[in-house]
Each structure stands twice: as structure tokens, then as C-alpha cells.
Amino acid sequence: MSNGKADVVDVDAGTSASSLKTAQSAKKAKSLGKSLFNWAAGLAILFVLWWFGGYLIEINPDTTNFSDFGPIPTFKAFPELFAIGKIQAAVMTSGYRLGAGLLIAIVVGIPIGILLGRSTVFRELSNSPFQLIRMISPLSWEPIAVIVFATWNGAIVFLIAVAAVWPVVFATAAGLAKVDPAWFKVARNLGAKPWHMVTEIILPAIMFDILTGVRLALGVGWIVLVPAEFLGVTSGLGYSIADARETLSYDHLTAMVLTIGIMGYILDSSCAMLIKKYSWHHGR
Amino acid sequence: MERRNGVRIDIGDLTHRYSAKAPITFEQVNITAEPGESLVIIGRSGCGKSTLLHILAGLLEKTSGRVQLDGKDVTEPSSHWIMMFQAPHLFPWMTVEQNVGTGLRFARWPEAKMKKRVAEVINLVHLDEFAQNNTQDLSGGQQQRVALARSLVMEPDLLLLDEPFSALDAFTRATLQKDVRAISKQLGFNLVMVTHDIDEAVIMADRALVMAGSPGRIVHDFKVDLEDPRERQDPEVQAMRAKLMEIFHQAAGVPVDSSNEEGDDTSQQDVELVGN
Ligand SMILES: Nc1ncnc2c1ncn2[C@@H]1O[C@H](COP(=O)(O)OP(=O)(O)O)[C@@H](O)[C@H]1O
Ligand SMILES: [Mg+2]
Questions:
Q1: Could you tell me if B59 and B273 are in contact, meaning their C-beta atoms sit under 8 angstroms apart?
Q2: Within this chain, do residues A23 and A143 fall inside the same structural domain, yes or no?
Q3: pLDDT tens for residues A73-97?
Q4: Is residue A200 in some structural domain?
């Protein structure tokens, strides 16, 4: 748009409300276009760097065997992996494990978080045990989990749940701390039954915080998932990576790594959208 | 809303202390009121007004004495007597309409009946055009109107008001004072209101009770015999105000600033709930 044209729009906007609206929505569309461009440009830069790294590996005689790590072989590997259903199967299996682990983390984490936020005794009693257990790397439970659970699958779900439960617990408790105590007084006066306090007051009031916790939990669970699948199982994204390394198919390996990134990105973005939807806080 | 609401209030020898070690908050409080009567309790910060209201609402357990509404002891909160606070304490994740319908949802009213009732009450407090709004986008006065509607939707016999307008600007406050009084007279329910604003007492009260001392007592019971609607600038209202001012001055033993600036914003939050 030329300078002269922009001026015309401004003058119009000053004279009528409807063209002001048009100008505003044009502005909005412009800023949306800009952020969309930046989004794409960011990804493009990432790919250029990747390509450049692959190129350096390829021209170096010492590392040229590993040139399949580059973007072009990787993108060639995708259709192959899709055709034999490898990506779909790995995503489904890992997705199931992640989903099950997260579900357990949520079902266990929210009530504990509510208790933590509402009861001083429980808070003081649980503080040091929780901090202690929380600091144990989730993966260090693996040997124990393998003994306790009949299947590797069960063990992996457990590891994800152990890692993911803490963000849910602490986000829920933090949300409760911001709940206006007068809401309970008002609700009681309006005839709320005890369960109404949970379903009508607490949960909607802290849905934002819970979902924020779930988003963090998802990130942690996703990170734990891959190394957990390196051992024992013969399915899933982690296994596929380990398997590709064994068979020296580096293009498959990178394709799987990229799949992990994309899946994680999609899950995280969905969570972010949910958070936006359930946020009643102003300015968020 | 055809039913005439209102209750006979009977408080006798009421004494309260927050714990065995705490000083007595108030003692020998005796108050009676006829159905539909508006009482305004005036007193300085800390004399126990909020505590008294919480006990009357069943939100706080009394230490000793009698608290009866229509001859029945008040032992727990009920949607027949509803308390409002200085802040509206709306549920910010709900629209205006949903906020107003809260008590009806708790009581499992059928959807259609509830919608109709909510619309009626929203109309009563002049918020029709805001029914679908987010409460956080409303002004302080509008938010307090939503809180009022949320209380009125239950058709209370008694509305307890703990300095409900003290955070509002003078103009909004004056409008709400008149509206609340008019609605209470229209529907016939009792008001028991706490304030440290003498003007407010003169505009709102059928009877003004002066609470003073430590431990607090009701030291004066004053009939505010004025026609409705009451306008601040009316000579009768002005004369009544001067009289009440003098009584308050004598009773409380301190010059009173009626301009309403020196309110304690937090004392109502200090009162603990029964069994929570
Ligand atoms: N939860 C509580 N525990 C102990 N003391 C309280 C509590 N709430 C209020 N008080 C005390 O009781 C007295 C009366 O308080 P309140 O009823 O809030 O007075 P008012 O509303 O007249 O300002 C004050 O001295 C206050 O500090
Ligand atoms: Mg008070």
C-alpha cells in the first residue's frame, strides 16, 4: 500500500464510524498476516539451519555417512514410513501411553491439588514428602516400575503419570489460592450443596489453572515418553528411534524425531487453545 | 413476585466473642423488627456490625442469646435471608444472567422457569441490556446491581447488607440506595443494613440503630419517619439527618464524619464462616 492510499483510509476513518470499523478490521487482518508470516519465517529459518547442518555433514568426508540426517533424505523417508504404516502405528501407540498417563495424572492430581489448596494441615503435612518425591527423576522409577507392573506398557504409563502429576497438583493448588473465599460464603447463602462448591465454584474458577497444569504435564509426559520407550517395548516413537539407530537408517530416525516434534507441537497448541477458551481472567 | 415477603426479626440478649480469649465483640444486643421493616445499623468500624449481620444470616455461630426469624432459630444459612457485601463477589466465569441464576440452579429449577425468573429480576435492577455481558466489563455500580439481582432472585424475606455501596461513587451510591429501598418496599422484604454513613441511614431506614462501645451495644433506636421517595436535599431529610447526627455524636462520643471516607474495607472479610 502506498503512502497516499494509507492517508486516504485515515481521513475516511475520521469521518464515518463504519469506515473506522473497516479500517480497524483491516488493521487486525494486517497484524494477523504479519504474525502468520513470522510464524512461517521462523519455521523456514529452522529448516534452512537444518539443511545447512546436513550440508556440512555431507561435505565432510569423516561424517558423510551420516548425511541422511539432512532434511531432504528425511522428507523422502516420510512417504515410505507412511506407506508401511510405521508412523501411524508409532503415533497411535505412544499417543495411547501418553493419554493414559496424563489421564491418571489429571484424575489423581486435581483432587490432591484441591486438598492442598484447601487444607492447611494437608499442605503442611505433605510439603516435604511431595518436594522430595517430586525431585526424583521420573525415569529413575523405571527399574521399580518394571518389577511392579506386569507389562512394560503399564510401566511406561506409570512413568508418564509420575512425571505429569506434579504440574497438575501444583497448578490446581495455586489456582485455589486465588479463589475469593467470599464466593463460598455467597454460594452457601444461595443454597449450594457441598458438591456444588466443587462443580459450580472451584472447578470453573480454576479451570484455567488446571489446564495450564495439564499443558505443563503434557510437555513433561511427552519428554519422558521417548526415553521410556527406548527399553523393553517394541512399539512407539521412542522404540522407532532406537530401532532406526540400530539399523543405521538415519533418514527414518530423523523422520521419527521430526514426528515427535510435530505431534508435541500440535498437542501443546491444542492445550493453549483450550486454556484461552476457559480463561475468564481479564487481559489473558 | 406477587407474594409478600418479610419476616419478624427477634434478637434477644445476643452476645458474641470470637474465642474464649478474645474480647467480647458485643453483648446484650436486643433488636426486633416487623415484617417488611428496614433497619439500618450505624456504628464506627470494629464495633461488631459485620459480626452481627453474619450471625443473623446464619453464616457465623453466636456465642449466646436468641436469634429468631418468624419464631424460628437461625442456625445455618438459608436462601430466605441473603447477605450482600461491600464487594459484589460475582462469579467472573459466568455472564450476568448466569450469575443471577446461580441460586436457582442450586435449587434445580427447570430451565424455562429459571430463564423467565432471571429476566424478571434483571429487569427489576435495570440491567436488561447487560444480561449476556461478562461481569468484568461492568462498572462497580452495575456489578453491585448484579449481586442484588442474584440475591433477589431467591425472593428473600430478608436482605442483609454490609456496607454494600461504600465502594461506589456518590452518584451511583445515591441511585442504588433509592432503588434498593424502593424494591424492598415493592416486594415487602426486610432490610438490615450496616453503614457508617449517616446520609445513607436517613435515605434507607425505617429505623436507625446506633451501635457503639466496646463491647458493642445498641445504644439508640431511632425512628426515621419520612415520606418516600426521599431526596437528599429535602428539608425534612436534612432535618432528620441533623437529628441523627447529634444522636450519633452523643452516643458514640466522637464527632462523626458522614462523608463515608473512613470506612474499613477489610473487616467484613475477617468474619469466619460457620463450620468451614
Ligand atoms: N474472624 C474473626 N476472628 C476474630 N476477631 C474478629 C474476626 N472478625 C472480626 N473480628 C473482630 O471483631 C470486632 C468486630 O468486627 P466487625 O464485626 O468486623 O466490626 P465492624 O463491621 O463494625 O467494623 C473487631 O474488633 C474485629 O477485629
Ligand atoms: Mg464491617
A1: yes
A2: no
A3: 888 888 888 888 888 999 999 999 9
A4: yes
Q: Atom 21 in ligand 1: which residue has the minimum CA distance? A: B50
ipTM topping 0.90: no
Residues A106 and A16 in one domain: no
CB proximity under 8 Å: B 196-255 to A: none
The count of structural domains within chain A is 2
pLDDT, one tens digit per residue, over A208-238 is 999 999 999 999 999 999 999 988 888 899 9
Contact B276 A184 (CB under 8 A): yes
| Fold type of domain B9-80+156-273 | Rossmann fold (3.40.50)
Measure in Å the smallest separation between the Cα of B181 and chain A Cα atoms.
21
Q: Please, which residues have CB within 8 angstroms of residue B8's CB and are 6 or more apart in sequence?
A: B32, B33, B34, B35, B69, B70, B71
Residue A188 Cα to ligand 1 midpoint, Å, equals 21
Taking residue A61's Cβ as centre, other Cβ atoms within 10 Å add up to 7
How far away, in angstroms, is B18 Cα from ligand 1 center?
A: 8
Q: What is the pTM of this model?
A: 0.78
**Residues, chain A:** 284
Structural domain including A77 reads 70-278
CATH number of the domain to which A155 belongs: 1.10.3720.10
Phi, psi for residue B170 in degrees, rounded to 5: -55, -40
**Chains A, B: CB contacts under 8 A, how many?**
60
Q: Pick the atom of ligand 1 nearest to B51's CA.
A: 17
